[in-house]
Amino acid sequence: MRPRRGNAGVLSGHQAADGDARGLHKIYAASKALEDARRHLERAEHHFGGHRAKALELVKQAEAEVKEAVAYAKPTPPPAAKQ
User: Fold this and answer.
1) pTM above 0.70, yes or no
2) Beta carbons of 18 and 73 less than 8 angstroms apart
């Protein structure tokens, strides 16, 4: 697995490794996609009638929710597989 950048928007490599063990690899992929979206929106040259700013706000909210999901999942073990 590729190590993650250590900035606030992306989870660290250690967190990513822990996530794979807990089945959270999709949430980490979503975190990376949101970071990319935030970066693109921040660098966009036009305002698009205020829609760019609104989209940026929503992406930041989504990033916060992803962090909350990871924080919730880490102390909560996955359900046991039925035998």
Assistant:
1) no
2) no
25-72 pLDDT, tens digit each:
999 999 999 999 999 999 999 999 999 999 999 999 999 999 999 898
Report the alpha-carbon distance of residue 25 to residue 30 in Å, rounded: 9
- Give the domain ranges of the chain: 13-73
C-alpha 16/C-alpha 74 separation (Å) is: 11
27: buried, middle or exposed (CB in 10 Å: 19+, 13-18, 0-12)? Answer: middle
| 36-59 residues labelled b (16+ CB within 10 A) or e (exposed) | ebbeebeeeeeeeeeebeebbeeb
